[in-house]
Amino acid sequence: MTALTRILSSSPFRLTLAYLGALVLAAVLIVGFIGWRANELLTTKVIETLTAEVVGLREQFQAGGPTRLRAIVNDRSAEPGSSLYLLVDETGRKVAGNLSRMPPELADAGQGGVFRYARAGEAGRRIERLAVGIPVAVPGGYTLVVGRDIEDQRHFADTMWQVAIWSVGLLSALGIGAGLLISRSVLRRIEAVSEASRTIMAGDLSRRIPLNGSGDELDRLAQSLNAMLARIEELMGALREVSDNIAHDLKTPLNRLRNHAEAALRNPDGPDTYRGGLVKTIEEADELIKTFNSLLLIARLEAGAVAESMVPMDPASIIGDVAELYEPVAEEAGLDLRVSAQEGVNILANRELVSQAVANLVDNAIKYSVEDGRPRPEVSISMACVGDAVEIAVADRGPGVAPEDRERAVQRFVRLEKSRSRPGSGLGLSLVAAVARLHGGSLRLEDNAPGLRAVLRLPTRGLGLAAGAGAAAGRASAP
Amino acid sequence: MSLKPQVLPRPATAAAKMRVLVIEDDRETAQFLQRALKESGHAADVAGDGETGLTMARDGHYDVLLVDRMLPRRDGLSIVQTLRGEGVRTPVLILSALGEVDDRVKGLRAGGDDYLTKPYAYTELLARIEALSRRTAPEEQATRYTVGDLTLDRLSHKVTRGGEPILLQPREFRLLEYLMRHAGQVVTRTMLLENVWDYHFDPQTNVIDVHISRLRSKIDKGFARPLLHTVRGAGYMIRDGAD
């Protein structure tokens, strides 16, 4: 397909052609109508004038006979710009008038019509002109022809036709030219979009469709497509990161597991080293299973797999139970685990998953509170209704998470670099975030100045506060 | 593979020998289970597909059925449903690679008594089989459990040791209640988490150990003979006997 045929077959060009066709048709109709009406009007006027003149002359004839008629015809013929007159006797000889002879068109027809006559032009040249005339029989064998020159009118009509033809031609030429230009520019922009999408399909996800900054519909389309591409790129990046993380999370312990088995096998000391190697192998396998289970659960949550198992429940009882589970651990670590929960709130949730999420947060909080061996004073769990959601906040006085890492830490399958070296699957926050998303909520990390405050937000979905309840009831589960 | 006694706890009493039917299509897994159960002092038969498993289970002379969820010819849930429909009440432990909340609920709703996710530790499996077995489990409806000089009254919620009352928090009471109902049997951390707290996830920290040590300080502290024992690599056991 050449560039020209591509333009000619483009939809803007075809639209232009259709538009142009309609325009030309309209122009022809309008010019034609004006010409026809003008001609009609002038002809009618001429015939009326002639008829009136014939009537007048006939009256003169009745009053004064042929002599008077002849005199009047001669008089009128002599006036400049006058009508055309001819009075002939019964033999066809000219008696008076400014026409040289009886126009054959009128003699044959015997009635009014168009005829041609010759008139002396400049430099003695005779020019033929068009006229309309009415032959009238006058008593005494005379025939009177009264006519009017319509050459100017004919000229007008010709001009009209020329105007029509020229305007159609000009309109067509301009229209086709404009159509080609418009089509070419539109095609060029669409080609740019196609070209960009081909490059993107070929794997360069960072490419974007160029904008021309005009803000027109093509620009807006390109903007939407670019936004879509940005989202796809982000998701692809996340996916890549996820697969990298999964590979890392599974391959590293797999490698350790293999190393343990290999080391035990290589060691010549016998059964005791074998046993030691096997024990380590099983430990690694168990860790691997835990990580794998977490990954699988997160993946299933992200797919919304357990959304149907949600029932209305009181989040205060959930965090009460989790706090009760962790309270001895906190106490042993020298921490004060404080719980304050708003009573009488209901949310639609999966108890198991929300419990696990809160447990993960509390687990983290306790782990990081005793991190450098010097226990920080407290870990607090609080729950309150905020707008149309319940916010469960777990706060500690540990080292916290750097502000630039907070956003990332709650993304899918993301482990912060710093947490990779720590024990545990390190997928705790990812799991909490996945549980939050499954419930239509979110997880956000805040500065507890000092420490970390993780806020799990779960929408109440219209359940909200039970009637008559809502007073915040604080209780500390510390012994 | 050599299985060592300190990893595989022996049944607490000789009378606890069980007949177990393993319905599992993976030959290696089935053989491993058969041999391991034998080494633990139990007898095990293997059925390699769902139909065979169902026929063998109908006899009803097994103490526990180990049913894999995905089997050739008839799936595990259908076996359990059919057996329950026919009035066979043999305890069933469902083994499955599908381990999420909904799958567990489906398994238990079909008539399974317990649900264990693959991959599992053999010690976990054994502890659960023994807990399920009719021969070793005491009457569910008993109102009073006694281990040595420790008694727990389920109606009055009173616990005494050597006649002295012991004050327990509600959760500690339920923990002790579960341990005493399975006196003489190994109870794993996961079993405690599931049955006492009704949680089916794995807390990263050993929260259960701390609860146990707290309970131990209340019931064993100051007594010459400890009743609450830690079984290395497996879990806990409450038992009256020399350590």
Number of separate domains of chain A: 3
Largest sheet strand order of chain A: 11-12-10-9-7-14
Radius of gyration of chain B in whole Å, from Cα? Answer: 18 Å
Q: By helix and strand content of chain B, what is the structural category?
A: alpha/beta
Determine the strand fraction of chain A and express it as a percent band. Answer: 15-25%
Spatial separation of the terminal alpha carbons of chain A: 84 Å
Low-confidence blocks of residues of chain A? 419-423, 467-479
For the largest beta-sheet of chain B, the strand count, sense and barrel status come to: 5 strands, parallel
For the record, give the distance between the C-alpha atoms at the N and C termini of chain B, rounded to a whole number.
28 Å
Question: Main β-sheet of chain A, in a few words?
Answer: 6 strands, mixed
List the quaternary state of the chains.
Answer: heterodimer
Q: How confident is the prediction overall: mean pLDDT of chain A?
A: 80
What percentage of amino acids of chain B are in beta strands?
15-25%
Notable features of this structure?
A: 479 residues; alpha+beta; Beta-Lactamase; Helix Hairpins; Heat Shock Protein 90; six-stranded mixed sheet; five-stranded antiparallel sheet; 11 helices; 19% strand; rod-shaped; B: 243 residues; Rossmann fold; Arc Repressor Mutant, subunit A; 2 domains; five-stranded parallel sheet; 12 strands; 35% helix; elongated; disordered N terminus
Textual characterization of the structure:
The complex is a heterodimer of chains A (479) and B (243). Chain A has eleven helices and 14 strands. Chain A folds into three domains: 3-119 and 127-157, Beta-Lactamase, CATH 3.30.450; 217-302, Helix Hairpins; 307-476, Histidine kinase-like ATPase, C-terminal domain (Heat Shock Protein 90), CATH 3.30.565. Chain A is α+β, with helices and mostly antiparallel strands and 479 residues long. In chain A, strands 11-12-10-9-7-14 form a six-stranded mixed β-sheet. Chain A has a five-stranded antiparallel β-sheet with strand order 2-1-5-4-3. The two termini of chain A are 84 Å apart. Chain B contains eight helices and twelve strands. Chain B has a five-stranded parallel β-sheet with strand order 2-1-3-4-5, sandwiched between helices. In chain B, strands 6-7-8-9 form a four-stranded antiparallel β-sheet, covered by helices on one side. Chain B is elongated, with a radius of gyration of 18 Å. Mean pLDDT of chain B is 83; it is low at 1-15. The interface between A and B is medium-sized, with 34 and 23 residues.
